[in-house]
Amino acid sequence: MPGVSAEQVRLARGVDLLSYLQASEPHELRKAGPNEYRTATHSSLVISNGQWFWNRGQVGGRSAIDFLIKMRGMGFVDAVETVLGSRAAPSFSFLPVEKAAQSRAEFVLPEAATFPAHVVSYLQRRGISPEVISRCLEAEILFESRKYQNAVFVGRDDEGVARFACLRGTRDDFRADVLGSDKKFSFVLPARKTGSRYLACFESPVDALSHATMQQHKGWDWDGHRLSLGGTSSVALTAFLERNPQITRIILHLDNDTAGIAAARKIKARLVGDSRFKHINVSINPPRGAKDYNDALLRSISQDREQKQTNRRKADISL
Question: In which order are the strands placed within the sheet that holds 162-168?
């Protein structure tokens, strides 16, 4: 496996979530009983007897790797490296973890709401244009869950079958992948024209939609696919390229922070070193002056609004 050895994977799989949090994020732990913990970020996440389960998101697992992948959106390699990095902490200890492999849970999309009012309102607050929202709804890659009014971003295979979905809270910071999701089929906003050779990559669906909205506002002449990596892993990207061999140009629009830039460089190095993708031109282009593309979009909207107000005041004075 590229990036980590079999021995590293074996060691990382032996670390349960409680041990990982005790070593790396002790501030997250909340004692809830003799053998039970919860976390500050997710109060309905229960850690007990070497296992964890998040009741609200219906997501669970045994190891810290499971948690980082399912709850933090990390790729497998990044999760392994993160868990192993925590071993340097003096309070780190290994607790017994059952080694039996778990089969992939059945993937089932949440029940959809009749009308996505909460999702539309949420995305518009994030600056996403009505046209881009409608495009996603019509393509059936976005809907609202009936039970919790979450935004559901769907990834489909070449036959149009849903294989992946991530949830984003419309009223809070809730984030999770639907249980059983296959990261190889992450969310994609396809190009308008079939056969496009261009691909832009982002860390999240909202960033991808923000880029599409900025293109609409600024009149950029670009028509390509927009792929959400679901974090900084290259799993979704590699799978997309295997399914779309016509791609010749990739732009990595990951977050403009230390983690995002480092991940983009790592992904580019992996692509350049893979003979299957030697024909692809890869560049790194984080958003200038902003953390991510949604931040860049909101700043652009704010600047445009301020400029209009300035122009209006100048016009009033001239009268």
Answer: 142-144, 151-156, 162-168, 175-177
Do 45 and 176 belong to one domain?
no
Q: pTM for the complete prediction?
A: 0.69
Nearest to 66, CA basis, from 93, 95, 104: 104
Backbone angles phi and psi of 133, in degrees to 5: -60, -45
Best CA proximity match to 292, nearest among 221, 222, 229: 229
* Nearest alpha carbon to residue 176 among 157, 155, 152: 152
Question: CA nearest 99: which of 169, 11, 163?
Answer: 11
**How many structural domains is the chain composed of?**
2
Report how far residue 25's alpha carbon sits from residue 261's, in angstroms, rounded to the nearest whole number.
23
Whether 68 and 125 share a structural domain:
no
Mean pLDDT (the chain) is 86
Contacts of 235 (CB under 8 A, 6+ apart): 75, 76, 183, 184, 229
Any domain includes 287: yes
Could you give the count of Cα atoms lying within 13 Å of 97 in the half-sphere of its Cβ?
Answer: 26
Closest-CA residue to 23 (of 91, 97, 95, 94): 91
**Mean pLDDT score, 37-57:** 83
Residue-number span of the structural domain to which 247 is assigned = 117-303
